[in-house]
Specification:
Strand content: under 5%
Shape: globular
Distance between the termini: 31 Å
Amino acid sequence: MPDSFTELVGKVVHHCGILEFFTNNTIRALSKDSILFNEVITQSFSKRVHVLRKLLERSELLTPEHEALCAEMLEIA
């Protein structure tokens, strides 16, 4: 039986929540200032993705795969 529209919307919302959760946790892990982290997580998702990218770059962890993932997350945002 195919999923109902309500179930599909629920899955989209759930998956977006997971993206936000992992984005916030990665920003927390890479940031050096808890006060600034608390300010960043109140920003829009697209701004947090930009911050994440900058933190990955600063930490010398930015790979082409991370760059592609950030681009895809910005499309979702």
